[in-house]
TrEMBL record:
GO biological process, any: sulfate assimilation, phosphoadenylyl sulfate reduction by phosphoadenylyl-sulfate reductase (thioredoxin)
Enzyme class: oxidoreductase
Keywords recorded for this protein, A-Z: Oxidoreductase
Any one GO molecular function term: phosphoadenylyl-sulfate reductase (thioredoxin) activity
A Pfam family hit: PAPS_reduct
Record keyword Lipid biosynthesis present: no
Family matches, as InterPro entries: PAPS_reduct_dom, Rossmann-like_a/b/a_fold
This protein's record includes keyword Oxidoreductase: yes
Entry similarity comment: Belongs to the PAPS reductase family. CysH subfamily.
Organism: Moraxella caprae
Name under which the protein is recorded: Phosphoadenosine phosphosulfate reductase
Domain Phosphoadenosine phosphosulphate reductase: 48-196
Biological or metabolic pathway of the protein: Sulfur metabolism; hydrogen sulfide biosynthesis; sulfite from sulfate
EC number(s) per entry: 1.8.4.8
């Protein structure tokens, strides 16, 4: 059951109504119908855009960060800087198992603690470090609107989506930057004086559940 009045039957109509709207207009519309909105972030490159965009309109919005334990030093430094500069209301969820325990438990089937993407163990790994913590967070936070930074040009799966989509639990997922390019996001960040992850020495973000940039991590296909 949908948690807002947007459902599978009228989803296309609402997406059509948002055609040509600016990201700011999309955010304001979504916030106007939300009772308990959240933003999800992994603090990867360009995440500063969605965090600034939404928090500048709703400063106290809950920002959900699921920390897999495999982030780089640069990513953690980037996260700390964004949290401080944007005064973000961050709630962090972590896997039920520690990275150290998993490294030992899966030692025979991993490379540096991470199963190969073609391994039969990769699905279990993804469930442990990303999907289970996200499900737990969504169940406890109980949002009705979920802002995210997915974009149409990122993966083949996302080309079939739109600004609005629905989670399997009926949460309205809103992607205000869905039709924006990397160049446009670079310009947005420059215009708003936002830090970029490469300020810490290199563009060093790593998602162990994706391995390759064009792969889906499972978050938007399974939740």
């Amino acid at each position: 059951m949908s948690k807002t009045f947007v459902n599978e039957q009228n989803l296309d109509d609402y997406n059509s109504s948002l055609t040509g709207k600016t990201p700011q207009e999309i955010v304001k519309w979504a916030l106007s119908i939300a009772k308990n909105p959240i933003i999800t972030t992994n603090f990867r490159p360009y995440e500063a855009s969605i965090l600034h965009l939404v928090s500048s309109i709703r400063p106290d919005i809950t920002v959900l960060f699921v920390d897999s334990g495999y982030n780089t030093v640069q990513t953690y430094k980037h996260a700390q800087k964004l949290i401080k500069e944007l005064n973000l209301n961050v709630v962090t969820y972590i896997p039920a198992q520690t990275r150290a325990f998993r490294d030992v438990a899966l030692a025979d089937v991993t490379i540096n603690g991470i199963p190969d993407v073609d391994s039969e163990y990769h699905g279990k790994f993804t469930e442990q470090v990303k999907l289970e913590p996200f499900r737990r967070a969504l169940a406890e936070l109980n949002p009705d609107v979920w802002f995210n930074a997915i974009r149409k040009d990122q993966t083949e799966f996302r080309t079939a989506l739109d600004v609005l989509s629905l989670s399997k639990d009926g949460v309205l997922k809103v992607a205000p930057l869905f039709y924006k390019s990397a160049d446009e996001l670079n310009q947005y960040q420059a215009d708003n004086g936002l830090p970029t992850i490469d300020e810490y020495g290199e563009d060093d973000y790593f998602d162990p559940t994706k391995a390759l940039a064009h792969r889906e991590c499972g978050l938007h296909t399974q939740l």
